């Protein structure tokens, strides 16, 4: 009995020690980060020779990127700019891209919305376990009352609402397009409409326009510009590459900006962890690397292995059509932004991000 008590005490001590060590390492990593001033265009740079990276391999990587129709590329190390390049014309076609040029985030904006949901929950404006109809009202779908009532906010965050995604416009939020296919939480599907409806949820919960709530809670506190705009039936965020990098730095810093907690660290940890067992490579509207398997949009097949095999296993990404990427790598204190176009027009151009890391991994190893 004494031996069992000793082993139990030892196990508890080791668990506590590991948790403490992990938190200490996280705090130490965060304390070394640089944050660009809010309201200013100043952003400190880090010379490549201070990174410890292979400069020759970096040159090869950047040369390859020139042929990928990339319009903006930013690489941050410890919050400082190591690489910042712009190519091609602006989204409007009027003039060349530069640090002030706006570009669309596409589905990379999902991670922005997830973060805003975390802030709203911290402010006790909503709970992820709440029924969706509490905020959208009864009849927001075409399902019977029992089926509709079963859908909760957590299902929107994890892409597991069970709403039918077959043969319809996936951006259509009209109740006539929202029908039953499976019980909530039993099927993972990359269905845009349930995500788009989170805008309405946040407006109902906060009592203010979505854009205003976003600007107040995330945009202004970290000096992030940009705007939300209805594009087709979707709700898309537009900004310059530096604003995307600022948001990535906020995530890397576990939700804080220069010592001020913008979003709860626990929520960031949950958002960037497997949110369900149906697709381990998906958190809260955020893609995860280093998991045992992954699923892709419009495909119910499960693929074995990591989403981006050559990238660090702790990387997580906001990803959008045509290669709008925001990559965060805590183990390397890295934030990588890629905006542009690409011939791979799939909803999540994972081949492009794989190709990027096949060439970038040797740079930092």
From TrEMBL:
InterPro entries: Beta-lactam-related (IPR001466), Beta-lactam/transpept-like (IPR012338), Diverse_Enzym_Activities (IPR050789). Keywords: Hydrolase, Signal. One of its GO terms (molecular function) is hydrolase activity. Residues 1-25 form the signal peptide. The keyword Glycosyltransferase does not apply. Residues 72-339 form the Beta-lactamase-related domain. PANTHER family: BETA-LACTAMASE-RELATED (PTHR43283), BETA-LACTAMASE-RELATED DOMAIN-CONTAINING PROTEIN (PTHR43283:SF7). This is Class C beta-lactamase-related serine hydrolase. It comes from Algoriphagus kandeliae. The lineage of its organism: Bacteria, Pseudomonadati, Bacteroidota, Cytophagia, Cytophagales.
